[in-house]
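TA notes. Do not distribute before section.
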Amino acid sequence: MALVEYKEEGGIGYITLNRPEKLNAFSDDVGVAFCEALYRLSDDANAQVGIISGNGRAFCSGADVRQRQLRAKAELEKLNSPAGRGGNFREPFFRPPVAKPIIAAVHGYVYGLGVRLALYADLLVAARDAKFQITETPRGLDSTSFWMMLDSLGAGMFATDVCLTGRAWTAEEAATHGLLNRLCEVGEQVKVAEGLARDILKNPPLAVRAVVAVRRTKLHEMDVRAHASGPKGLHLTEDFRESATAFLEKRKAVYHGR
């Protein structure tokens, strides 16, 4: 069973996260498969628009905490992040061979890395059951890049709220702050995304890609600034490991950071 599925139909490239038993949490293997799917979309001459969605009860519940956050400290130091090598999807998102528009069609849990996927996408469709959370904050990681992306969308005070408190928010709240292109009924997110994709397909592809390329360049610049200005080494702290251990043990974390 493929961890990430890809198919093309009617000019649309469908990328589907397919680890439903783990709520589509990103392991190293999922990260590599997702990058490959993004490159397949870029290379597919028949696909002019992409739609990213998730199978099962969630779009994406974030990174695989057990695998990524509980790596040995020596491995975290070597990797310089909790993520494994080869699954960094920033490259195919920010610098694709062909800048085709991507629509995220989300539902259920949209947590952590799932929020990043949703905000990286050029258009965002959310079902009413979608629940968003920047879990980087309670996991002891830097949420600067999330704040910058949300702020760029005109939701500055909201961005500060969710990045400092780490609280979850609903699809309706996201729509109120102008963070969605479409809010839809549960189970309709891919269908609504297809409607947007067909509207895009009516236009000359080069004109569409010009806008996508500029938007991705802006996102990349924000991402670079966020990593340059944010705190370093949070993934090596005891608070980082404690948050993962407490999450897996289903208990309240005890933090010691100052």
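Switch to the second chain here.
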Amino acid sequence: MTETDYSPSKEVLRSLRLLRSPDPEDRKRAIRFLSSMRSDPRVQAVFEHMYKKDPDPAVRQLAWRAIWPADPSVPAPAPREEAPPFELAPEPTLAELVPPPAAPPSAAPPPVVRRSSRRESRAWRQPFLLNPSNVPLVEQERARRARRKKTARWTFRLGALLLLLMAVLWGVLVPEWVRWFQFEWDGVTVAGTVTERQQRADSYFVRYDYTVGGQSYAGEQRVTESAYEALADGAAVSVRALPDDPAEARLEANSPEDRFRNYLTAVVAGLTLAALLMLLSAVLRRRRALRIVPPAVLTGQVVACEGVLDDDGDFKVKVRFRFVTPHGQTLTGQARQIRNDLRDRPMPPLGAPVAVYYRHEQSYRLL
């Protein structure tokens, strides 16, 4: 062959003819050759035509990369339904195959991939919803968990406050019980004599004398009305005294203080048990609020997100996400949705929260 057989014009014509070949590999070779001429707007128009109309996905992707060589993603559009393959026609001329430069290129806009910095990603506190119609479902789940957490929080606070109050009352009761046990365990019973009885308002008092180790002591004690009436001046009584401190003594008779101590102890013990049950209930409620039982709305993270204008001019958002199941398994998925309202808004960054409706490992979807 001569040099004329490999002239640039003949190679261009051969490549243009290959673009109409029914064999996808021929069309790929043509695109690769013409990629060196991508700065020519007419070649860009040919690539745009291949990207929009070619029935083979690999050819469309190669055409897209020829138009946007620096773009990392290739959002090749889906082929139209029942799209016929390229029809063979008589060999065209170069002027017919390559449009004139007068028509400005109207290449499909590149995919709008918006990524945010780490600082911007902190602004994404609420889950990104691919489908805004799922807002009621997410809000219902959030309200249910918040209600359980709030109930658990207030139950815990009331239980803790009640337990603190019981601790104060126990601080008053414990010394009284310690003193009573001292008399019961260490005290000795000695004989005594009633020296005087007194009634002061609604209270009854008895004064008495007793002897310990040959030394006389006197004491006074409040008693019940029945014990007061059963005693008389000069009557013999039994006195319980401490050997180490004989001056400390008490009558072996019913005392209002003993009754009040026993009653208050029963009340404080019951309230203490109630406080402990409230704290236990708060812990269980909080665990229940945190426990996830399918079906449920889980929180996941964005792995990748991009927005692309399709052939119809709609803004389509594609999200790849991951989440952890209640059993601890990490699952990934992807979803697409037309969101024309997000054309001029930033896409959720890597790590932004998303809501996933989870039933089991084979059934879940991005909300």
